[in-house]
Amino acid sequence: MSDDDRPSIFHVLDPRQFCRADLDELCTLTTRVRGLAKTKEGARMLQTMLPHKRAMLYFTQPSTRTFLSFNNACHVLGIRTSEIRDPSTSSEVKGESFEDSIRTFSSYVDVIIMRTWSEGMAKTSAELMDRIRRRIPIVNAGSGKDQHPTQALLDIYTLERSFENRGGIDGKTIGLMGDLKRGRTVRSLAYLMQLYHDVRLVFIAPEAFQIDGDVTAHLNANGIAHQLTDSLHAVLPELDGIYITRLQTEYDEASESGEFDHARFRFGEEELAMLKPEGTIMHPLPRGSELDPAVDTDPRAVYWRQERNGMWMRAALLMKIFGVESEVDFG
Length: 331
Ligand code: CP
Known about the structure:
The chain is of the alpha/beta class. The protein has eleven helices and nine strands. The two termini are 34 Å apart.
């Protein structure tokens, strides 16, 4: 099989594989799928898209939203699903290697969607599929501290919707706050933001949890304006949007998550008053103490919409992966 036979999106491993045209097309397709699913006829039509396909959800690191949204995205399109969420229930406990496990999944399904504790496992799986000439796309649904490309896609869609009456993402200043060192969602989103014009990114974190140099080097290389700060209040009034993330305590080696002033990195009613009236508040969820539930009722809070968007964006992505996007009318 040559790469030329593949749809333009096949393995989904890293946000850097996408171009602006991919994002614009995926956003348009996501809106179309979301609209179609609202009616009985539209939902029936979507169900006929991929009933001949089967998906494996290999989620050996905990997940609520990504698992459920991919599972339901598959069902929206008629794809049947099987899953492993606990490797102790698979033959990996008998000593079967990761590569043999992936090869086995590929005997039964048409796409493998995986969330793993370590980085690089989706890439290794994609290389294996290519090496053994199995036309099975691999989708990275979160790889350790490294990347979460499909989260970044749904975040882009949510930002575009939030700014749809103000020219979209182009020209906006977005703050990204929290555990930026170990939070893969911000790392992936930062890579996609480079595809928009005149954006400025403000990374807000205590020094020990600031964004890593690989991301800032990439932004520098691509001419994307950015700033690092440990003062939310100093920058909040200038932001068009703020993307808040939790502390990734699951990666603590000692008690590092407790070793800074958490109150300086919380968003609550005081911060609501400082944000622009048309600003937008996002969070990939789940949340910790960094986002006060009192914010939920503010019209600028879009994180519940953001998680719903995940299902529609992932359905659109699966349509692209299987090359059936032209079967829906974009009109
Ligand atoms: N946003 C996100 O990845 O959530 P889950 O960990 O619940 O999938």
